[in-house]
Amino acid sequence: MSVFPFLLLIIDTHNTYKTSFEGFSASEDDPGRTLLGACEKATTLVKPHRSSKLTLALKFLAGITALICAGSVLYTAYAVHNISEVSRADYGDCGTQDSVEEARAKGCVFDPMGWVWVRPECYDKELVEEFMNRTEYSWHTEPKLLSESMVPLDIVFRGDHPKLFTQKKYHYVHCTVSFP
Fold first, then answer.
1. What is the model's pTM?
2. Given 89, 92, 119, 149, which is the most exposed site by the fewest CB atoms within 10 A?
3. pLDDT in tens for each of the 180 residues of the chain?
4. What gap in Å lies between CA 36 and CA 41, rounded to an integer?
């Protein structure tokens, strides 16, 4: 009688996997005992996996969480859209930013610190003058800032030019006013 080692997978009480060898007799005298029979016997030693229920529960919770997150994003997007609609209605409209004539026709004032047309009730003349007088700025129609392209400050304050060029120090003051 010859003995062949056969590897069986056994689960202990702590759900950790261990391996062991069990002798298998391949004797011709025992026709009822086959390799397939040993495998069937081995599969009965393994307990059903409980993690399938746990996995299903986790997938369900992940799905519910994803639905809640998606709903929250949609609700927030809708609420922000409604807030911006109310804001436009409350503060009026100065038209497109490139249209000086449209902004003036709607009664708007040019704010050189924000480089934007605003409603008169939103314009703080004293604050703008204070910041504009902190240092000497020169405004130009060309990026090289040459004296030939210089624009007087009163023209800048009128907002006649949708695009002008100035020194970098203006940018720092602009950010101080725009993002307090």
1. 0.46
2. 89
3. 444 444 444 444 444 444 444 555 555 555 555 555 555 554 555 555 567 888 899 999 999 999 999 999 999 888 887 775 555 555 678 887 668 888 889 899 988 888 888 899 988 889 888 888 888 888 899 999 999 999 998 888 888 887 899 888 888 777 776 666
4. 8
**DSSP string covering 115-169:** TEEE-GGG--HHHHHHHHTSS---EESSTT--GGGEE-HHHHHHT--S--B--HH
User: Among positive and negative, which fits the CA dihedral 122, 116, 175, 133?
Assistant: negative
| 145 Cβ contact partners less than 8 Å away, ≥ 6 residues apart | 138, 165, 166, 167
Identity of the amino acid at 109: V
CB 108 within 8 A of CB 132: no
Residue position matching structure tokens 């409209």: 93
Q: Which 8-state DSSP code applies to residue 99? A: -
User: How far, in Å, CA of 140 to CA of 151, rounded?
Assistant: 5
Give me the helix-helix angle, 168-178 and 125-132, nearest 10°.
Answer: 150
